[in-house]
Structure prediction request, 696 residues.
Amino acid sequence: MAQMTMIQAITDALRTELRNDPNVLVFGEDVGVNGGVFRATEGLHSEFGEDRVFDTPLAESGIGGLAVGLSLQGFRPVPEIQFFGFVYEVMDSISGQLARMRYRSGGRYNAPVTIRSPFGGGVHTPEMHADSLEGLMAQQPGLKVVIPSTPYDAKGLLISSIRDNDPVIFLEHMKLYRSFRQEVPEGEYTIPLGKAEVKREGSDLSIITYGAMVHEALKAAEELEKEGFSAEVIDLRTVSPIDIETIIASVEKTGRAIVVQEAQKQAGIAANVVAEINDRAILSLEAPVLRVAAPDTVFAFPQAETVWLPNYKDIIETGKKVLTF
Amino acid sequence: MASKTKTAQFDAKMQLEKVEEQFQTFQILNEEGKVVNESAMPDLSDEQLQELMRRMVYTRILDQRSISLNRQGRLGFYAPTAGQEASQLASQFALEKEDFILPGYRDVPQVIWHGLPLSQAFLWSRGHFEGGNIPEGVNVIAPQIIIGAQFIQAAGVALGMKKRGTKTVAITYTGDGGTSQGDFYEGINFAGAFKAPAIFIVQNNRFAISTPVALQSAAKTLAQKAVSAGIPGIQVDGMDPLAVYVAVREARERAINGEGPTLIETLTYRYGPHTMAGDDPTRYRTSDLDNEWEKKDPLVRFRKFLEDKGIWNEEMENETIEKAKEDIKVAIKQADDTPKQKVTDLISIMQEELPYNLKEQYEIYKEKESK
Prediction:
């Protein structure tokens, strides 16, 4: 098995599906000869040619429209939005068109489109590059929203996303692109969408999270263990729909939970998880379910980024509040 | 310090005039039904000419009946089409069955003549999703509500056709207001960059709801917007079915020969309101202007042309009218007989596999709807 970074695992997933299915098309800004600004499509243009892997004019809305139109011709488009902060330019194609294709056509058409895009803080980008907008996506019925936290998951989840017959927003945290390597199997394997993973078992506290925060949560769990607290860490992997069974089973076991997201606190994924826990497991709870999240501002400029982003210390602090409630 | 007077590096006035002079209105049949451009006459048989007339007459009746059905509360959303028959139907008449139409919301007649059953058009109007459940082999998608979205999608459909090598085209429609949208430009530009077999039609009916075309752009014609995308554009008399047919047919030939997309502006007019949802055209149009355009009526001039050729008469006209009325009666009955759309139907159709929340909500609404 090869040791891969997340970005290599993503390229490997794209290559696997381009080989598997002649209807898979990869396109976007600079994804062709250049191999993408993060090299996610490195080598794909030369292996599969201009017909399968191609650059588009610089217009996100047009890229979205292209995906809609190509899917109507039976293709399985995998467009890249260069940075997810640019998603506002393509919101109509995503929420107004792709997510409604089945409904609007009474089931005649579907939109097997996977939109890949980098996002996430901690890498000192200019404005509109790092924002966590998964909550915005998750509010749209008809979309799935996937966020991997490891190279292994990234490949298996991306293959599943591409094979899914409905639109999937696949968000890749920039800080995780090259932060560590992991063994990633050659060839194809899938990880089901909508399934969380218990990353670490524990009995006192459930820490429910996703994306880059999974690694902060694991670090926090280690520290908490030193103080005698056993924390369970759940990586949602798919943030819409969430894996309600895994979440509720964990909370029923531990009786205490916190939900951690890199995004701003208002609305969003964590708020939904808290509400679902309250709906379904209130009698198992020994303490209120609290959130760890960024402040309710727009994403911070690089100078304030480090403090703005939640980290393992914030998780420990909030975790202890719940543990000692 | 006094500023230095510089000589202009280019002649702005001349540049614009040079662009505009390339976009003269293309016409074959004038308002009196006389051929003014013999060399451009399309190679259509008498039967084809009669069929195009039949479709225009039929669609005028469909428009009148749809308006009255809407007033009776028996139709939902409806955007009147009278005045635009040549623009709509002659452009569709120039297509092959395998070509794909991405309509705007006023472009229901084209999708009907491309094969969508009338009953489904009525269901679409009523907001029933079965209206968009296009039968197999009919190459259309339900009319687009978002102005301009169909333009970028048409670029995608056309690129897909190019990749499949099908020798077919994607055709899409918007109005004069639609050309102000970013997606209008992105659509024609993408299709141009990919040399995709697309035809983009701008039905310039002078008003975007109430806003006159002069307020949409400094461009003298909308066809000239093609220049910015590096594709050909043509302005056509949209009340002249023969000119519309020829322009679309030529665009189609270019497209399937690998020469890329074309932008076609049809100069037309909608006699009725924007939609039946309360728009009052007397607030923004004068009756003088209405009268001026009604003189250009596509049915009047085409009827005259065919009568002069001796291939159309009152009996054929009446037969067509009766056929339209009968078809509408049957189609409304079919629409009435279609079970109403339920919330559970809507839930079922959101995704291939329902997530946990929709599964739970399905049960809740099944219970509510059983009462």
User: Anything to note?
Assistant: The mean pLDDT of chain B is 96. The first strand of chain B starts at residue 100 and ends at 102. Strands of chain B lie at 100-102, 170-175, 198-204, 207-208, 211-212, 233-237, 262-267.
